[in-house]
Each structure stands twice: as C-alpha cells, then as structure tokens.
Design goal:
single chain, 476 residues, Aspartate Aminotransferase, domain 1, Aspartate Aminotransferase, domain 2, 2 domains, 4-stranded mixed beta sheet, 15 helices, 19 strands
C-alpha cells in the first residue's frame, strides 16, 4: 500500500504505519493466511450437491434472512465464505459454478490469493471506510488509474470521485450534468435502460414496476436502442426520434444517458456507427454524454466499452462499478461543479479500494484486453458453444447475445416464466446465471474475466445442456 515518499536526507523516523507493514510478523501472517486459503480452497472444485445434514440449518438461515429483509431472496444463495476461481461453496455444502459473480462483482472469481492479500492491506488500516474527511494514498491511486485508463484513447476525463455503489456513482453523474446545464431538467435515455434503485435512478430506469408508488423526480425521454437484427433501421429511428426531442424541448436537456451495452435490459450491444450518429447531434446541441459502465467496465476489448466502440471523443461523464469493487464517477474539467454538490461521508471501504486496485492489476496481467485478448477469445468460444446448443435445442435456447465477457441467451419462448424456470433449474444443477431484459427475458452470464478458462466454459456448457433437458420436461 503506497505511502508518501521520504527524502533520503530526512532526519524524521519512518512512518509508523510503514514500519507495521514491513514487520516480519505481518509477512509471516500473510504467508500463513495464503497457505491456509490455498489448502482449503482446493476442496472447492467441481460442482457438487448440498450436504443433507446441513439442509435444516440452511433452511433456518434462509428463513431468518427472509424475516429480516422483508421477503425471500431471489434464489437460496448463502455463501460459506470460500471458493476457488468461478467455483463457490455455499453454506449448505453445495458447490456451484458461479458465472454471474454477484452480477459481475467477483472479477477474479472466489478466494483469489491476490485479492485476499489486498484485503489484508485494508485490514491493517486504522479506518475501515474512507470518505469526505479521511482519505488515504490508495484512494488517490485508484482514482488516478481509472482516469489514466479512460484517457488512453483521448477522452477528456480529468477527475474521479469514488463512491460506495453504482447507484451513487450514477447519482453523482446526474448531479454533475444537471448542475452544469442548469436550468435544463430533462434527460434522454434508451428504452429498457437501467440505472439503479434510488429515486432519481428509478425515474431514469425504463421499468415501470421499479418505480411503482414512487414520485417521478426526473423528466426522461427515451430513444429506441440498436437492433442488431436491423441496425440501419434502428439507427435511423433513434436518430429521427432524437432530433424530434431536441426540437421539441430546445435547451432543456441536461444529459444523454447511455449504457454502451444494455445490461439489465437484455445484453444488447451498441456499435460505433450507432452511437456516433446520436452523439454528434447531441454534441452540437451542447448536451453532455454520460456512459454508464457499471456493468460493462473491463468486459470488452478495451477497459471501457466506450473505448471498445471508439467513442472516446464523446465521453463527458463515465461511471464504473461492480468489478472495480469501489464505484466511481469520472468527468472532465469542463464539467467540474462550481458548488459543493459532491461530497460523501463514505467514498468506499478500505477493503474495496485495496481489492479494486488489485483487480485492475489482474485485468492487465491476465491479457484481458485487445482485439485478440482473452475477453474476445473467451466470448467467441462461449458464443460458439451456445450457438451449438441452439442448433441442437432450437425451441429451448436462442442466441447468443452480448459482447465480450457479457453473454446471454433467450430461454424457451422468452417469457419471464420460462426464464425463471430455467434459471432455477440451472441453480439446482449447479450453474449460476441470472435473468435480464423483458420481452424477451434472457439469462445472462458474467464470468470472471481474470480467471475464467476454456475448461470452465466447457463445464458451464455441459451443466447448461443438462439443465435444458430438465427444463424441456417442465414446459411440456
């Protein structure tokens, strides 16, 4: 963990914290912890069923969870706290192949040695949370690295504000844009957009049931997203609707909100041509562009999906999260607020910042990026296998869809009922994926970019085929 440097001529003693980290006892503790985690995680390999002896206490835990949170979880997942790569052990003794990773959070899989070691750094901190009145050098390092990565293609990104959630990162992005364009008060987004669960983000999200009973605190207008089956027509429709909106509400738009790859909406990829056709008239109208990369960051051929599509010149504000452990809002100097509208007691836990930095290291060292990088290669490999399953079971699985290490398929008839049935069948068989989108509803995978192998994908495909066979018997 970086600390302020000391000049060689200084008469001051070294920092006490630096001496602590250099203490031989700490080094020995790290070694012993790493050895113990490695020894025990070796038992977590390959899918296995639950331990019958743990069934009753596990059900008790699930019941307690439902009571405390006011309803049952979407599926009966309670981690034991140990795993290996994409395999995770649950508290009922079962082992699952986790290809959803907490919706993209576990970018190195489970119990990765480097992530555990980074968390030890954080455990040595005197504060478990960093924030407005207390920051440490790793916070600076994390912010600088996210900015550096964002600027590699020429994006005008100068500043970074860390935050504890993707929703908060998106809130900050919206505040920056609204402040910059005051008194403009309207937002343009895409059909099926998802931005988070706060009041403002629920208003922006194109899911009526997510804001049922809540006041609409934003005026949002929607454009159709790119249709990969008919890209030219969908682009024309989107551009025509954009010009209609800009003419109808001149000077009223504070931001254009876009996920480069529609995540919760169903894993619909964008393209350079589609986004450029929209961003150019937005730039002429002086409307800032916000790229929401809370889910897509690090999963394409470039660290940011806006870079993957060659949209660097249009990136005014960018949000990241999930795989980065700590979330962030990045923006250019031109949009720097003139009032103190950006401040948080907590900007991130010491652990999330330390493991976030290590995650960036692993993404770089894992050769994830590039047109021939691992993200692209594993996508092509996985997509080819899903296509083969579609040819074999055309009534049970459609697709594949998505981009890079964001991949999805349509189960059965694409109904929410079919998607949930197959998702729960997969869960029972031992494969974790999660729903997304509507009309059709799909099942998505977010394999960990830093550790997924072709062998893991082979295992997932085999489990999915077993699940499809069982699913076919349920929908007869």
């Amino acid at each position: 963990m970086d600390q302020p440097s000391e000049s060689s001529g200084s008469s001051h003693p070294p920092l006490a914290a630096a001496a602590l980290r250099a203490d031989a006892r700490i080094a020995e503790g790290r070694r012993l912890i790493a050895e113990a985690v490695a020894d025990h995680s070796r038992a977590v390999q390959g899918v296995q069923p639950a331990n019958p002896d743990l069934a009753e206490p596990y059900e008790t835990l699930l019941s307690r969870l439902a009571d405390t949170r006011g309803g049952p979880p979407f599926w009966p997942y309670l981690s034991s706290g140990l795993g290996q790569g994409p395999f995770v052990e649950l508290a009922d003794g079962s082992i699952k192949l986790d290809f959803i990773g907490g919706i993209g959070v576990h970018g190195a899989g489970h119990s990765h040695a480097a992530m555990v070691d980074a968390a030890i750094d954080a455990a040595l901190e005197d504060t478990v949370m960093q924030g407005n009145l207390q920051q440490h050098p790793p916070s600076i390092n994390m912010s600088e690295r996210l900015i550096q990565w964002a600027r590699t293609g020429g994006a005008a990104i100068d500043h970074c504000l860390l935050s504890t959630s993707g929703a908060m990162a998106n809130e900050n992005a919206l505040k920056i844009a609204l402040h910059h364009k005051f008194p403009a008060d309207r937002i343009i987004a895409f059909d099926n957009a998802f931005a988070g669960r706060s009041l403002a983000m629920a208003a922006l999200t194109d899911r009526p049931h997510y804001r049922m009973g809540l006041p609409l605190v934003l005026n949002v207008d929607y454009l159709p997203f790119r249709d990969s089956a008919n890209p030219e027509r969908s682009q024309r429709w989107a551009v025509d609707e954009l010009h209609r909106l800009l003419s109808r509400h001149p000077g009223r738009y504070a931001a254009f909100w876009a996920e480069p790859i529609a995540g919760e909406g169903g894993y619909y990829p964008g393209s350079h041509d589609f986004f450029r056709a929209l961003c150019e008239p937005l730039r002429e109208a002086g409307v800032p562009v916000i790229f929401d990369e809370v889910q897509s960051f690090s999963r394409t051929s470039k660290p940011y999906a806006f870079q993957h599509y060659g949209l660097d010149e249009f990136a005014d504000i960018v949000t990241v999260g999930k795989i980065t452990q700590v979330c962030a809002t990045l923006y250019g100097e031109a949009l720097k607020p003139k009032a103190s509208i950006l401040s948080q007691t907590f900007t991130g836990s010491s652990s999330s910042i330390a493991t976030g930095l290590k995650m960036l290291d692993l993404l770089e060292s894992g050769d994830c990026f590039g047109t021939e990088g691992q993200n692209v290669q594993r996508h092509d490999y996985f997509a080819a296998h899903l296509s083969s399953l579609h040819e074999k079971y055309p009534a049970l699985i459609g697709g594949p869809f998505g981009e890079g290490m964001m991949i999805a398929f349509t189960p059965g008839d694409g109904s929410a009922d079919h998607a949930k049935k197959l998702m729960m069948t997969m869960y029972d068989v031992g494969l974790l994926g999660f729903v997304c989108g509507s009309l059709p509803t799909r099942i998505r995978f977010l394999p960990p970019p830093a550790t997924t192998t072709f062998e893991h994908i082979d295992a997932a495909v085999a489990l999915l085929e077993t699940s499809l066979i069982q699913f076919s018997q349920q929908i007869v």
